[in-house]
Amino acid sequence: DAGVIQSPRHEVTEMGQEVTLRCKPISGHNSLFWYRQTMMRGLELLIYFNNNVPIDDSGMPEDRFSAKMPNASFSTLKIQPSEPRDSAVYFCASSLNQPQHFGDGTRLSIL
Amino acid sequence: AQSVTQLDSQVPVFEEAPVELRCNYSSSVSVYLFWYVQYPNQGLQLLLKYLSGSTLVKGINGFEAEFNKSQTSFHLRKPSVHISDTAEYFCAVTPSEKLVFGKGTKLTVNP
């Protein structure tokens, strides 16, 4: 079975640009999670969806961040405009109940 | 709300030695518990989980953990480590969907 697929694996862009991260969950999973990992703050849950509906977005840092899940097989996390402090590894995970299965992440660098 | 404390940020050990990585949690409700492993430049991989039943849980790669409700602990153990076990290990808890992670423990296995 294919795992959670994230793209791109690496992204380097300049401050102020729009960044879009993509995630394809495991087929049949009904929950999808976006996390951010940094040295300073560790793993933080940004938002999660259940059956394509956002359930909890309390971890989204500010209005510059938005996430969508238009269907059961695709989700995006967008940052607009991006700032250097957004540099981190962003993970997507999916689950059907428990446990969560993680993708390999997108390493984002904002210059 | 739940919280997780991983008591050691770094654990160096020699190859073939036993290891214990400690995890304590706080929660006012029953929780599920997990250990994940993260190898460099990869996502998180599930090592083992406690959902219910026997408090001694066996996972992949020879790891096991014991759920101790009275001490609110879920320590991870391996009787004999290999160089390939060098990685970062995360303890996580959830009462339902949202995982709360500890800060992680970096295990370094030296020859």
Explain what this protein looks like in three dimensions.
The complex is a heterodimer of chains A (111) and B (111). Chain A is mostly beta strands and 111 residues long. Chain A has strands at residues 5-7, 10-13, 19-24, 31-38, 42-50, 53-56, 65-71, 74-79, 88-95, 101-102, 106-110. In chain A, the strands form 2 sheets. In chain A, strands 2, 4, 5, 6, 9, 10 and 11 form a 7-stranded mixed β-sheet that branches. Chain A has a 4-stranded antiparallel β-sheet with strand order 1-3-8-7, with no helix packed on it. Chain A is globular and about 35 Å long. Chain A starts with a strand and ends with a strand. The relative contact order of chain A is 0.34. The mean pLDDT of chain B is 94. Chain B contains no helices and 12 strands. In chain B, strand 10 (87-94) and strand 11 form a beta hairpin. Chain B starts with a strand and ends with a strand. In chain B, strands 2, 5, 6, 10, 11 and 12 form a 6-stranded mixed β-sheet that branches. In chain B, strands 3-9-8-7 form a 4-stranded antiparallel β-sheet, with no helix packed on it. A two-stranded antiparallel ribbon of chain B has the order 1-4. The chains are: A mainly beta (111), B mainly beta (111). At the A-B interface, strand 5, strand 9 and strand 10 of A face strand 5 and strand 6 of B.
- Structure summary, number of beta strands of chain B: 12
| Residue fraction in strands of chain A | over 45%
Average predicted local confidence, pLDDT of chain B: 94
Distance between the termini of chain A: 37 Å
Can you count the helices of chain A?
0
Mean pLDDT of chain A comes to 95
Low-confidence stretches of chain A: none
* Sequence of secondary-structure elements of chain A: EEEEEEEEEEE
Shape of chain B: globular
Q: Give the DSSP E fraction of chain B (strand runs of 2 or more residues).
A: over 45%
Taking Cα atoms only, what radius of gyration of chain A do you get, to the nearest Å?
Answer: 13 Å
